Amino acid sequence: MITRKKEEALRAKMARFGIKEAELEEHFIRSRGPGGQNVNKVSTGVYLKHILSGVEVKAYSERSQALNRYAARKILVNRIEAMVLGRQSEERKRIEKIRRQKRKRSKRAKEKMLDNKRMHSRKKGLRKKVEGFDVQG
Q1: Cα separation of 115 and 56, whole Å?
Q2: What's the pTM?
Q3: Average pLDDT per run of 10 along the chain, which is 137 residues long?
Q4: What is the CATH number of the domain that holds 66?
Q5: What is the DSSP string of 78-126?
Q6: 47 in a domain, yes or no?
Q7: 115 lies in a domain?
Q8: Which residues pair with 25 in a beta bridge?
């Protein structure tokens, strides 16, 4: 059962992302899975497509068409939200990466890096051929 509060929250979320009922293409399809005669005879599944974004959703988890309509809209809004916020978070990640690359290293981190470089240099120096001897054997 869908409460009025849940339905209003969904409508508000749809409005926040600019999704209007007129932009939705809705078809009813046969469900699948358990449910017996009801599933086999009645088209309780819902296919929903947001025309502007091209996002498509199918919902047939419930035995009731009304519940599946609600579920399809909820899934659709969540997918569009992920698309919108995903773009914003990718941009934020890119900016944060550049900021990290440009910042100055701490004194301790710089010392550690220089120590590693010195150690690597010593290792490489030990591999050099000494005059008259073949180190590699």
Answers
A1: 56
A2: 0.62
A3: 90 92 92 74 90 92 90 93 82 89 91 96 88 62
A4: 3.30.160.20
A5: HHHHHHHHHHHHHHHHHHHHHHHHHSPPPHHHHHHHHHHHHHHHHHHHH
A6: yes
A7: no
A8: 49
